[in-house]
Amino acid sequence: MIGAVATLLVLLASPEPVPDELLKKLADRDARLTRLYKEGAVTMTSRVEELDKGGKVQHTQTVVLRLTQKDGKPHGEVVRASRDGQDVTEEERKTQAEKQARADEDPKGKKDGRMSMTLPFDAATQPKYQFQLLGPDAKNPSLSRIGFGPRGKPDKDIWAGEAVVDPSSGEVKWMKQRPSDLPAFVDRLEMVFEFGASTSEGPAISTLQMEGEGGLPFFKKKFRVMTTFSDYGPK
Q: What pTM was computed for the model?
């Protein structure tokens, strides 16, 4: 009985703030990964599934991109692409070239797609967030669970979710997040990251699973995306 009460008190206890020392480790590790994403290269393989209301797959598209930097800007080379089993590599290369041309014409520069995956632990971004320790990870008690969300008003560019981190190194092992305020025409969006890729800067993103739903009234769509990141290295 005493043990049960003690367990209940632990569950009801308010989450603790994340120590500054751990936040610094997370920021340092994030900076190293950001440099890796910006200065290196990676192969990104994405499978996009469009679903009907019942969750049945209607259309599937697979694209393999080699992402690098060219003249200081992100550059994606289409290795191959298919749609519903048909090869559309040349069509996708044309689409990618048009996107690249528009980005090159933008004087402010387009955001790197990889950088849109920057974690909330970035040193410049941390002040926008509130972090809480949620206890040890159930699968590995040496790892810690951290909850995060907007410090102030929810915003479509500020995420809410949970991460599993190594408190000794600041490495992120797993993360689940969603926009704290959904963008226009988006009803649901959720991302799950796995950090299992071995790189010179430590574990990097290996997989990204994304599910969502949105669109104009009467034209809403559900989608599911599975992306793998491989062959990290110099550009």
A: 0.84
